[in-house]
Design a protein that fits this description.
Elements (H helix, E strand, L loop, with lengths): L19 H54 L18 E4 L5 H7 L9 E14 L5 E3 L20 E3 L6 E4 L3 E3 L8 E4 L6 E6 L5 E7 L11 E6 L3 E7 L9 E3 L2 E12 L3 E6 L7 E3 L2 E7 L19 E15 L6 E9 L14 H4 L4 E4 L2 E4 L2 H4 L18 H8 L7 E6 L56 E3 L8 E3 L2
Parallel strand pairs: 3-17
Antiparallel strand pairs: 1-2, 2-17, 4-16, 5-8, 6-7, 7-15, 8-14, 9-13, 9-16, 10-11, 10-14, 12-13, 17-18, 18-21, 19-20, 22-23
Length: 492
Amino acid sequence: MNSSQPTATKATLPRSGVTLIELLIATALTLLVMGAVATLFGQVGDAVSGSRQTLQMSEQLRNAKELFIRDLRGATVRGVPPLSPASELGYLEIGQGTQRDRDYATTGSPRGAQEDWLALTTTADAPFEGNYGKGAVVGPAEPPPDPEPVDCTGIQSPVIIDNTGAGFSSSGTWTNFTTGGYGGSLVYAAAGSSSTATWQFNNLAPGSYQVLVTWVQHTNRPTNASYSIQGDTSETASGINQRNAPLAHASAGGFNFQRIGNPLDVSGTLTVSTSAATANGFLIADAIRVECVGPLAVQPPPPPPPAPVVAASGVMSNTAEVMWYVKTNPATGRGALYRRQLLVVPGIDLAGLPAAQFFQQNDVSARATANGMVPNSLGDLTPRENRHGRAGAFPFAFSPANVAATLGAREQEMIVLDNVLSFDVRLWDPGAPVLGSGAAGPVAPAPDPEPVDCTGIQSPVIIDNTGAGFSSSGTWTNFTTGGYGGSLVYAA
């Protein structure tokens, strides 16, 4: 009988750890994952930092743009020369250096023009704010409006005063002549007499006026009549020849009126007078006409701003002197755009404030004098030497370094944009070439030519048979008991 023995088997026990190889693989995978996560976080951080820098730069650009637009929009003067210093409106000044963006484009340098600058006086609805070493002052809440030019155009019609009308007066001996003249009559006085005649025009709209005179010509009239004209200023028109008919610069009532003298500013009253004292013939006094020909040549100054009033802190004003410029870091070629603002507060008290560090403690437009610092008005800022950041001698050039020297530690407060590659201020000129194209820009059309006209230039000219310019041929007989100048010639 066959029998079999049971077979014994060895039980398999679970492992309680990992092998060294498995541990190394797990560690390597963990390090890879951690490196990937760290790289991802670094990229996200860089992106966030870049986004923040972009947002910060965009905010700086937007702020600089808004400030720039506000300053230009509120400029107290128009950017159209010439500007009369008597206008006392402030200033607008542009500085252009030798650098140009085009030059750097050809060299591959990222930097453009950084030497240009802009300085101006400007106003704004919301007041400008600044420091004041004495504490608390606020300027007027609103600046006075720009005055309209004083102009009689379209307001004042021509005015005529006749020898029989209101506004005419005379002294001495005048003879009335009722068979001629404007309005049917005129008066005349003997040569060399003390007789005077005056025409006074009252309540004229302020503006510039031209005086015109009429008379009836005759050979016994003077060739040297003289008229004194008094408006805001005075003038004498002499050498008026009443032996000739008046030039037809204007006409009324069938009579021609001739211009005498130049246009004169008149703020209300214009007086014209004539005297026979120096006349070399019978002086005629008839009608005089005055016409408005435009605005006052010398406009009145704008009204002064209201005196400042005490307020909580600092200084405020709706008018300021502003300077825009760039300072460059030579190491990087990049610059910072600065905006220096000085408030125009003419009535502010600066007595006792030291001149040496004045602009480190005060944001007030002022100038140094022998008696200390004096606040500027717009009229004071019209002369170049009173503006901020100027050299001490003619032509009183602006320099960013001069501005920086007055700021000290406060200079960083004036930065409105950093990492600036270019600040290029250009003047618009329709005839300038288009940069980079090699072609000229549009050419401004030539002005319409003035009409060829001898009016007001050429007086009547007479050539007598005995004068220069006369010639004859053949047989002429001289007749000396008649004719212009006492003679004439005749031929068979």
